[in-house]
Structures are given as structure tokens and as C-alpha cells.
Amino acid sequence: MTDTLHIIGGGMAGSEAAWQVANLGQKVVIHEMRPKVETFAHRTGNLAEMVCSNSFRSDDDEQNAVGLLHWEMRAAGGIIMTTADQHKLPAGGALAVDRDPFAETVTATLTSHPNISVSFEEIDTLPDDGQWIIATGPLTSSKLADAIAAETGAEALAFFDAIAPIIYHDSIDMSKAWMQSRYDKGETEEERTAYLNCPMTKEDYEGFIDALLAADKTEFKEGETAGYFDGCLPIEVMAERGRETLRFGPMKPVGLTNEHDPQNKAYAVVQLRRDNALGTLYNIVGFQTKMKYGAQVDVFKRIPGLENANFARLGGIHRNTFLNSPTLLDDQMRLKSKPNIRFAGQITGVEGYVESAAMGLLAGRLAAADMRGETLGAVPNTTATGALVTHITGGADAKTFQPMNVNFGLFPPVEGLKSGRRGRKDRYKAYTDRAKLDWQAWLGTSDANAD
């Protein structure tokens, strides 16, 4: 029996892990180096601070794997989903949140829990005893990363993660832009008008691409390589892959009608999503970038409606380190060479806020069972959580392992269903129905063991 679980890192995964363990009756210490040790991307010392997008992506739990993961975390009483629901912003079918109140609420909830304490000190070694979860995310400190590399005998893999810029709403020209969610998606008028759209003609688009390709970019240090995760590509990298790539990606014009000129379809559209409850800040959707600051201002002001844009935050780029989990972690998320240490969150090779938090939820429950001298059964790989952890701890090819978002391609097929696009709706509904039953059954076993 172990009395206290120690968690290194107070991001999405660390916060969720702490909440799960504390509510299962165990003591937890969160070790968070911020604000004493700052990072490139963080602005505060709050737990669960959102450093990139303010979106948890789709909230559809019947047709989308991310939405299903939302459902599973809610069913497990997760703090990240509960708090996100409290600070929800209009975003069509997505779950977007007011980032600062969200982090402040998570911080207040965790620090007021009688089983949780927080230590604002950096941990830079791998502990030899006690129960630990390392949930340091993409910005793991260099000393701790070196300690992990020394222990595993292999260099951690790395790619580069880019951050999108945020603009003050009152600096956007609404005589050119309009409010509309793609395909008018949403149950309320607020949801159906959740996105701000800036239209481009073909001439506008071609000029924008030329400026983007010519702009000054951040240079990498000698020996570094830019192995980007495809779900978070800088826009200039997408543009380098082909002049039409952006027009079929974040700038696609489909499902939108310009209220200022409804007869003419835009050639491309730049979308912005509300970033806070006041509606004073908007982030440019899908516009992660590694352009230098001066170049960003010049290029983004070419967008119709943003000619006089005032930026609350410009885009940036940072190194994102993750483990080769299929070779280093067992199916209980433990480091094979040091089984008193689990890893959770983005450092395990999952991508996205939701996926990171889900791995924290699972690591917390597994650790809590260990602390009681028990072992939880494996999460069924028919669930979103189980499919994800199965992938990173053995389902993926270690030689080509890259960060992964949850998706239905990770799920075992449901027998007897039609394949291909025509059968997709029925197939996804079958996946989610099966997952919900299996997740509830696993949760029931997990909770019963804790009683």
C-alpha cells in the first residue's frame, strides 16, 4: 500500500489524474514548476492552462471519436469535461471554452480538494520509489527530459508544435466579415453564428499564398529537424505542399454564404473562433505558424477584414517531446524499467487536449488501484479511451510511431456493417453504442474495486 501519489505536471493530464485519484480516496501531490520556471507557451501559473487552441473539438458522441471521448470522460466524473461545460462558448458542433476562467476553475477546484496539495517546484530526476505519474506534456523541462532519455536508453522523439494568433474583435472590419458556422451547424442561433468569416477572392488568395511563402520563418537550430504532426501543421508548411492545400484545408469556402455578397461564392474563407466569453478575442482557426512576428502581422493583414487587425497574441512554435511509448510503456502505462512511474498525456504520444486528459484519467485510476494493492483490468479497446491507450502501448508500429488523435480507425470493426463512405453513419453509431456499454461496464468494475 502507498499513501500518496505524486504527479509531475499540472496540465490537462496531470489535473485529470489528480482529480480521479483524490476522488478515489487517495492523497495526491501535484508538482508544477510554473510559475517559478516559465515556458515559452504558458502565460500563467494556473493548472490546466490552454496554450494553443481553446477548442476541445467535436462534442458529437454518436458520430465522432473525439465526442465519444468527451462522453467517456463525463461518465467518469472528469474535471476537465465538467469544467469545460461550465465555461462553454458557442462553436457550432464543437466544445470551445473561455480559456482563462476554465483554468482558474480547475485550479480552484483542485487546490480546495482535501486530498490534493500542490508543490510549485521543478522535479528534474526520475524517482526510485513511491507512485509517480509524469504528465509534463510537450514542454517537459530539459533536465527531466534528459533524465528520461538516460533511463530509457533511447532519445525521445520530437516534432514541432505551432500556436495560432489571437486578434481583438473590435479591430476586425465587420463590413467585410460575417458570422456563420459552416453549414449553419448548431441548435441555437448563437451556435449557428459561432464563427467569424473573412472571404477571399481568387486574387486575394493567390496574393496571400505568395506572401506566406515569401515570409521570414523561424530558423531551427543546427541538428534540429522539423517533424510536424499533421494535425497541427503550420500554414506555411501546408502552403509549401501545394498552392491549393489551404483552400481545401482551414481556408475551405464550403458551407458558407457571405451575407454582404450572397450571390458570389468566396474562393477561400479564413475563419476565426471566439476565444473568450466576452467575445473580445478571436483566434484564427487552423492558422498555426512559424513565421516571425513582423511577417505574421504583414501577412495576416492581407486577409479581407483584418487589414487593421490588432493582435492580442501572435503565433509561435515550440519543441514537443514525446516517448516511443510502444517500446517503453506497458499496458498499465508504466515505464517498463521503472514500474513505479507512469506516464500520461501528450508525452505518451497522444495529440490534443482531450486525448491528453483522457490518458491522465486512465493513469490516475490505474495508479489508485496500485496504491490499494490491486490491478485494474485492461480498458476494452472498443472504447475511445481503450482504443487510444492500446494504440500507444503496443498497437502502433514503434518504428514509425507518431502522435495520434483518437479516431475510429483505432477501433476494432463491428461485424456485419457496411464498409466505405455510404455505411459510415451506421458504422460510427455502432462504434459509439458499443463503446458506451463497454466503458460503463469497465467503470463499474473500477469503482467497485475502490469501495
Automatic annotation (TrEMBL):
Catalysed reaction, written as an equation: uridine(54) in tRNA + (6R)-5,10-methylene-5,6,7,8-tetrahydrofolate + NADPH + H(+) = 5-methyluridine(54) in tRNA + (6S)-5,6,7,8-tetrahydrofolate + NADP(+); uridine(54) in tRNA + (6R)-5,10-methylene-5,6,7,8-tetrahydrofolate + NADH + H(+) = 5-methyluridine(54) in tRNA + (6S)-5,6,7,8-tetrahydrofolate + NAD(+)
Record keywords: Cytoplasm, FAD, Flavoprotein, Methyltransferase, NAD, NADP, Transferase, tRNA processing
Plastid in keyword set: no
Binding-site residues for FAD, renumbered to this chain: G9, G10, G11, M12, A13, G14
Record localization: Cytoplasm
Any one GO BP annotation for this protein: tRNA methylation
GO terms assigned for molecular function: flavin adenine dinucleotide binding; tRNA (uracil(54)-C5)-methyltransferase activity, 5,10-methylenetetrahydrofolate-dependent
Superkingdom of source: Bacteria
Gene Ontology annotations for the cellular component aspect, listed alphabetically: cytosol
Family stated for the protein in its record: Belongs to the MnmG family. TrmFO subfamily.
Biological role stated in the UniProt entry: Catalyzes the folate-dependent formation of 5-methyl-uridine at position 54 (M-5-U54) in all tRNAs.
Name of the molecule in the record: Methylenetetrahydrofolate--tRNA-(uracil-5-)-methyltransferase TrmFO
UniProt organism field: Octadecabacter temperatus
Gene field: trmFO
